[in-house]
């Protein structure tokens, strides 16, 4: 249904098949058309529904943002947990290695203590034997000095001196020279038949052997 205005605009009222007015179209003199919709009877309900829809959409967007943030935080926490687990594994391996080293050090210390104890016991025994031999040699020497000793006593004195020199060489780890004889410490020389083998502390230069 159209209605001519005052010549400046044309108003066209649109009526639906159900007899209700759908809207108003205004055609201006320049040919432009402006449409005006009529407010429906349930306008308040429609507006309330639209507001609820907009609010729900806003909440959904906010919830999506929150979920994304939480997901990022969860990923970061998972990464930190993996890093911590790796560090824990490394620390565990380091601790196990340290325990093994400590056990090895304890075993070495225990072995060293045993060796030292054995060496001390051997030294005590050697000292006792040396003291006994020295006393016996002194008695023989006194007899020789007093002219009361025979050839057998002199031979025994020499044997005792040899024992003392051998004990002294073993106790000090040094070579002892006495009466034309070199007494070697067992830690630096060994004998097999007619062959004498010296340790790496000794050296040979030409026909000279240096015992150290």
In short:
The protein has 2 helices and 10 strands.
Question: Could you explain how this protein is built, in words?
Answer:
With 212 residues, this protein is an alpha+beta fold. Among the domains are: 8-13 and 20-65, no CATH class; 173-212, no CATH class. Helix content is 59%, strand content 20%. It is built from two helices and ten strands; from the N terminus they run E-E-E-E-H-H-E-E-E-E-E-E. The chain has helices spanning 43-145, 151-172, and strands at 2-4, 9-15, 21-28, 33-37, 176-178, 181-183, 189-192, 195-198, 203-205, 208-210. A four-stranded antiparallel beta sheet has the order 1-2-3-4, with no helix packed on it. Strands 5-6 form a two-stranded antiparallel ribbon. A two-stranded antiparallel sheet has the order 7-8. Strand 3 and strand 4 form a beta hairpin. The protein is rod-shaped and about 170 Å long. The N and C termini lie far apart (135 Å).
β-strand number: 10
State the helical fraction.
55-70%
Oligomer: single chain
Q: Number of helical segments?
A: 2
Distance between the termini: 135 Å
Structural class: alpha+beta
Biggest beta sheet attributes: 4 strands, antiparallel
Strands of the widest sheet, in order across it, are 1-2-3-4
Q: Which value, in Å, is the CA radius of gyration?
A: 58 Å
The geometry reads as: rod-shaped
Order of helices and strands: EEEEHHEEEEEE
């Amino acid at each position: 249904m159209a209605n001519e205005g005052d010549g400046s605009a044309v108003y066209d009222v649109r009526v639906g098949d159900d007899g209700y007015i759908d809207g108003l179209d205004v055609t201006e003199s320049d040919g432009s058309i402006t449409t005006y919709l009529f407010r429906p009877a349930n306008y308040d309900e429609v507006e309330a529904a639209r507001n609820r829809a907009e609010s729900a959409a806003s909440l959904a967007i906010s919830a999506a943002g929150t979920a994304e943030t939480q997901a990022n935080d969860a990923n970061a926490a998972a990464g930190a947990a993996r890093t911590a687990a790796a560090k824990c594994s490394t620390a565990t391996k380091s601790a196990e290695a340290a325990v093994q080293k400590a056990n090895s050090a304890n075993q070495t210390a225990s072995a060293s203590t045993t060796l030292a104890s054995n060496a001390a016991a051997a030294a005590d025994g050697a000292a006792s034997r040396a003291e006994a031999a020295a006393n016996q040699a002194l008695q023989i020497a006194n007899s020789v000095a007093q002219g009361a000793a025979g050839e057998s006593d002199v031979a025994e004195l020499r044997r005792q001196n040899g024992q003392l020199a051998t004990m002294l060489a073993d106790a000090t780890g040094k070579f002892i020279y006495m009466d034309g004889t070199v007494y070697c410490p067992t830690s630096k020389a060994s004998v097999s038949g007619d062959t004498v083998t010296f340790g790496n502390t000794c050296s040979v230069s030409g026909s000279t052997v240096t015992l150290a």
